[in-house]
From TrEMBL:
This is LRR-RLK. It comes from Vernicia fordii. The keyword rRNA-binding does not apply. Keywords: Repeat. Residues 122-369 form the Disease resistance R13L4/SHOC-2-like LRR domain. SUPFAM superfamilies: L domain-like. InterPro entries: LRR_dom_sf (IPR032675), LRR_R13L4/SHOC2-like (IPR055414). PANTHER family: LEUCINE-RICH REPEAT-CONTAINING PROTEIN 57, NB-ARC DOMAIN-CONTAINING PROTEIN. It comes from the Eukaryota. It holds the Pfam family LRR_14. The lineage of its organism: Eukaryota, Viridiplantae, Streptophyta, Embryophyta, Tracheophyta.
Amino acid sequence: MAQGLIPEKPGEIIEDIGANILDELIGLGMLKESGIFERGLRVSELYRESCLLQVEEKDFIDKAVNSPIHLFIRDDGKHLPSNFKSLLIRSLFAEATVRDSSDNSYRVEALSQVYLETVCGLQFLSVLVLDSSIDYLPDEMGNLVHLQYLGLYLRNIKKLPCALGNLLKLQTLDLRRTYKLRELPIEILNNKQLRHLLMTQPYYFRYFHDGIRVPKGFATLVNLQSFTGVYAAGSGFASELSTLTQLRELGLHCVSENHADEISAAIMKMDNLISLYLRAEQTRLHSSKQGGKKSVTILPPLLPEFESFSPPPHLQELRLYGGLIEIPNWLLSMENLIKLDLHKSDLLENPSSVLQFLPKLKNLTLWDAFKAKVIGKEFCEA
């Protein structure tokens, strides 16, 4: 989308057009799906070899000097060509990875300051992905005014530069691997073209992440289609969320009974919502005495019941992280549901009882959803 490769059609959402194109390429065998928890795509081996052969035979590097270039660099820019800064680089995927000879794996290191300064001088960039262990970004990042896609896979960064607010053409900000980031700068509200604000990974198990806090006034980002990894317990959050009725993907962390009614009311206004992720507020502790000794058991966080909740009609993906005790009644009405993930649900009943009410369900993930050592045949029959 950031490269302008998707043709716009009147009355259609550009993300839907792009998704249809990808499905066609998968059907033709040119792309293959990968990944367990997140959908990934890769070029099939046959077409990959063909592309590499074309590059070698046609002196691609020499002929690309005056053409838009898309680069993937893994060595921290240690072997850049002398004319690097003069190239029309439109996309850059920069990793700082080093191969470990002992087990042939890669470890992520920090990008050098010199390399970062060089990257910030690439004025034609529309796509930039940084994968590194650095803990800062220079203010000069705000000079990349043509950026439309920015992916920051920066595991140690705790604060983003206010200069990101200068990126007025930015459509996608991907922060799903910035595990230590806890809040966005208020300047992010300047990015009125934002369509996808993706924050924190739902399936990162190293430690609990309560989501990223967004500044008050986020309701002015009226073009948002995706809004994930968001801390939902802030004052006035639900009120602003209720105005983003155009959302198609929503992921909320720290959902609790304290604001359950407001959150559910906001979600019910989102008629276009396709994907929903809800994560409970915090871990619960259960104390008990046995034989004169006190013991503490860690229970999964408890999700609100959302008693009056009615799911948006087009919802296809639902991920729930937290204790449910029993399957909520509203789940049975989701006739268009294709993907269901239940994590730490602490269910007292086998969830197979609801499958018969979900005729389109194709993908089911149960991760500590209920206590069972063996899944019986009734589960498969459902």
